[in-house]
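Ticket #4471: structure export looks truncated?
Reporter: QA, pipeline team
Priority: medium

Steps to reproduce: submit the single chain below to the structure queue and open the exported record.
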Amino acid sequence: MHTLVLNASYEPLAVVSVRRAVVLVLTEKAVAEHVDDERVIRSATREIPMPIVVRLLRFVRVPYRRRVPWSRRGVLDRDRHRCAYCGSRASTVDHIEPVSRGGAARSWLNTVAACPPCNQVKANRTPREAGMQLLVRPYEPKAQAALVLALGIKARESLPAWLEPALAQP
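Actual output as written to the record:
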């Protein structure tokens, strides 16, 4: 499990282990903004609900937000493990414009999640040539939203609604 760390201004800052988040709360460097009431962390003297989102008490200045590096896992997470062609469960990444035809190999805008059958049917062709239509438009995730994608599907589903505007995608 992982925990989302927010800056004092509620801006997503990092994803850390639950253990690190508990240490931040216990040392009074952060407060738990959202917890999983069903899971608790126990010690000899304390019982703490597992933090899903913690907020730092002091503002941390972030000089700049660099671009999110491309990764296969990132593409699958961005597309929520759903095939961009048929909507079924995806486990592979497909290049919209094949690399052999000059398409970018590691580009957010040229890759989508795909199920193995659709990926094989499309093969070394463009979706248009294969007679397939994209159900989603690929995009480059924001650095803040990429942090939430890194949390995993179950953790994302339990995030509070007030955090949605900060994570909105195109």
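Status: closed, not a bug. The export was complete when the record was re-opened. Leaving a note from the reviewer for reference: The first helix runs from residue 18 to 26.
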